[in-house]
Amino acid sequence: MKKFGEYKSKFLESTNEAFRAVLPVFLIILALSLFVAPIHSGTLLCFIFATALLILGSGLFNMGAELSMTPIGEKVGASIAKSRKLIIIIISGLLLGIAVTVAEPDLQVLAAQVPSIPSQLMIYGVAFGVGFFLMVAILRMFLKIPLNALLIGCYAIVFVLSFFVPNEYRAISFDAGGVTTGPMTVPFIMALGVGVAMTRIDSRASEDSFGLVALCSIGPILVVMILGILPLTGITMQLAGYASNNARQVEDAAVYLAPVVPNVEFSVELVKLYIGNMPTYIVEMLTSLSPIVLTFIIFQLIALKLKKDQLARIILGLMLTYVGLVFFMTGVNIGFLPTGYYLGELIAAENKWVILPAAMIMGYACVKAEPAVAVLNKQVEEMTDGAINAKTMGTSLSVGVAISLGIAMIRVLTGISIMWFILPGYLIAIVISFFVPKIYTAIAFDSGGVASGPMTAAFLLPFAQGACSALGGNIATDAFGVVAMVAMTPLITIQILGLIARIKNERISRAAVETAEALEDAFDDVIVEL
Q1: What is the DSSP code string of 133-180?
Q2: What is the mean pLDDT of residues 391-401?
């Protein structure tokens, strides 16, 4: 009975957080559809039902991830670190990264929208990239390599490679780096870092536990760029399940298909629409979660050997995660994503410049309501002993994301290459890293995925695609990149706040020294007079 009360409380708290995250976007979309770009009542009804599914699915998913992903990450991380065997650490990091990323809902949503890469190929390719860099990140903790040095080297490779990648893949590759640091991956990887750090006793252990997510987000960028350089034929198409000798299949795989906008007349049709499509996501999410479940079973049998109550709690968490994913993906694909595309298309056709303030307002509201952002703000406030308070942190992030979405919509309107924004942005972030405490750099690069929450891939990206389609632009080069722009903002914002905190601390220290020197001089004068 006590446990039931605890789980009920967690569910209500998690659902409330999901409601707060989705509500601002819902209200803005409702206002736009009523006063700016009227949409059919059946489409609006379908969107409202999808919103309810999103809230319920996110609530169940977040609760399940807390009960399962976090403890699995901590215990598995501590287990592989204690072995001290390099080969075990490398293989475990690779497999764990792949397993947890395959189930990432944000990646599932993005993969379904990418026209040039088959969904399964993109999901497993990106998952391998995350796994590889998770292995690198864990090794960094043992070898005590400075994070900013590793980031500079990795991003240098990214930007050099970007000059050889076709334009259609550049924005998509940076979007892939943003979506992989989502609600499934981040809690698990951060918990894994804490578990590994617990086995170290030096003063830098807790500081080095940050930065895993930052490095893992580089893997997907490189993988998608490599897929862009390689022709979508031969072994690439075989991996994707296509016949390499069928040119028509290759051509079809690269054609962007606009989402079908639902339009139902009666509630019975609405229920049939969702129930009819749900079995697809029941099977897909079962396939997506199976790698992490299998990995956990192997570790449980070999190393963890958890007690029955701990095991029961994790199993319950995995079940809730699965059900939440099914509801979330059904709501996104049937109602949320098509409505976002349709609304962007309507607004751009009526008055294209309205998409600019609309996206900025939605971005500002989304970040304000994102539960993970609230946790990050509190963490920074505690770390700086109040020098940077949570309110200042939240406002700066919201303004930064609003600006980044404004820039993303300017790209949709003008067709400017994403490299004109991404390259200077990352260069600024890396330069600042030399002037702020290392902990700020780690948190800033880790939090890139925090700002780009589920709403960015589920609504804002389709919104940009619809607007781009109405304006006759190239969706692959102009519309993609929204997630990447949002994910880049915290890299600069948080480090600037760290720079401000450092300046404040130096001023306080200087003032304290000057006061001490003045008191000492006054005391000397008194002695001379005596």
Answers
A1: HHHHHHHHHHHT--HHHHHHHHHHHHHHHHTTS-HHHHHHHHHHHHHT
A2: 79
